[in-house]
Amino acid sequence: MPIEKYSFDFEIYNSIDELSSADAALLQLAQKAAENAYAPYSNFHVGAAALLNNGETLTGSNQENASYPVGTCAERVLLGTVSTMFPNIPLQTMAISYYNEEGKSNHPISPCGMCRQYILEYEKRVKQPIRLILGGRKGKIYVIKSASDLLPLNFSSEDF
Ligand code: THU
Q1: Are 77 and 61 in contact (CB under 8 A)?
Q2: How many helices (H) and strands (E) does the chain have?
Q3: Which of 11, 82, 130, 132 has a CA between 20 and 30 Å from the CA of residue 142?
Q4: Whose CA is nearest to atom 10 of ligand 1?
Q5: pTM for this one?
Q6: Of the residues 4, 18, 64, 75, which is catalytic?
């Protein structure tokens, strides 16, 4: 019985100071965007920022709801905005940051499963990988080459 192995490479930085100025600026935008989260139920504030091929940047934040499943993650809020404002411009990098109720934010968080699927669809649609920069307000930062790295054996319209 053949066994397949899945692995991927990603970069780990010790702090924002080690990032290029463009990546650091995008992560700072995501950190700032987390302040616009509407998260009265989880008190977990997430911000996401996108850099498009045309140089534009846009941000999103999680928007919760008293009917909990109605709430939307920062990444999907952001991609909905990107798609609406710049439907034909590929997105090259997305930064994601957060802080919790006590302001704690010391390690990277990674997009939830639903957001991975959503980001993957965007990559396929614009035919360009989306680099992810994951980092809190301090601590290590992960840079991942493509959202598809986070979703092996994924389902997409190619399966239809
Ligand atoms: N959340 C995001 O916005 N993005 C993620 O990648 C993880 C989770 C939100 C959903 C919910 O509003 C809160 O964080 C707690 O799960």
Answers
A1: yes
A2: 3, 6
A3: 82
A4: 73
A5: 0.97
A6: 75
